[in-house]
Amino acid sequence: MKLLSSQPIGIFDSGVGGLTVAHAIRQLLPQESIIYFGDTAHLPYGDKSAKSIIYYSKKITGFLIKKKCKTILVACNTASALAFTDLVNFFDKKIQLVNVIDPVTKYIGKSNYKKIGVIGTKGTINSGAYEKALKKNNAEYEVLSLATPLFVPMIEEGFIYDDISNAIIRSYLSDKSMKNIETLILGCTHYPIIKNQITKFFNFNIDVIDSGRIVAEFLKSILTERNLLNTGKSQKDQFYISDFTPFFEKIAKMFFEDAINLKKIDFWN
Ligand code: DGL
User: Does some domain include residue 121?
Assistant: First the structure.
């Protein structure tokens, strides 16, 4: 089937995290329409088995294909790390899939950093996906990875810019593995929400990298290459969640300002 540039971009995550990437796409590509799916019923993905993440990711991708998306962005690092290869094998040729790990590791490849810190969920860190992708570019890299599993529930519960979140950030990032890093990859799309606090923890001395802008640029380049960049007017963005959480709505409004079109949908049964 021939794709049209006016078709939407599908984006999914386990919850609010992918909104950080969706927001960056909205800023860089204002003509594009977005269909976002937050799998709030199964959040967090970070401590689930690869089998479950693959199952959820396939269902959501199928849903976004039915919604006629021209490309689908897996805006969740855990799903990118644990399910992306399965998705590509399963939906091969049907849809172009993009993950959030490759654009960031390619970006790092253009820099001079040697000691690279990565934080993420247990699923992402234990998969070694960042380390593998980084070392494929340069075997000399020293990659220091740390799972920071409390960050996602903390953010989803709205603990941001307060004593609780500062204490949790300090407790994780004081780990000795984080001592001499030159840059820190936020390997979870929820973490840009606390990026300022993390940067402050490091006394603004290191480059803290979040995937939003980098992934948006990457998406722009592949849409341009395929002649699928929309030049017309965008449609209203659509937001779907699998369970209603007031926090999702709050954060979505924070990123997308106007009244958002939020719908709950259940396709698990
Ligand atoms: N935002 C997601 C990620 O990038 C998932 C967090 C979670 O659900 O545990 O990994």
Answer: yes
